[in-house]
Specification:
With 90 residues, the chain is mainly alpha-helical. The chain has two domains: 1-34; 39-83, no CATH class. Helices cover 63% and strands 0% of the residues.
Length: 90
């Protein structure tokens, strides 16, 4: 039982640590190279918040996540292959 818990804890720690290491590496590489082509993780997060709730930038995409979700749902019905006229190719 203890061995199982130790293995489980190790898996959880690795599952949390590995993505964090990747994000830190991403940030360090973008900052150290000075590239403007690839955004930092903070800039990506800020744009995701703006897309979800709006208020960061006043553009056409601010706070539009719900309308995008509704359009996809109305168009595809959550990709229901039993729907008449469903196109399997797209």
């Amino acid at each position: 039982m203890k061995r199982w818990l130790a293995g489980r804890g190790q898996a959880i720690a690795l599952g949390i640590a590995f993505p964090l290491v990747l994000v830190v590496l991403w940030h360090l590489l973008v900052v150290s190279t000075g590239t403007q082509l690839v955004p930092t993780p903070y800039q990506v997060g800020r744009m995701m918040v703006d897309f979800s709730v709006g208020g960061v930038y006043d553009d056409a995409f601010s706070g539009r996540q719900h309308t995008t979700f509704c359009r996809v749902y109305n168009r595809d019905g959550f990709v229901n292959p039993n729907k008449p006229g469903y196109n399997y190719g797209s």
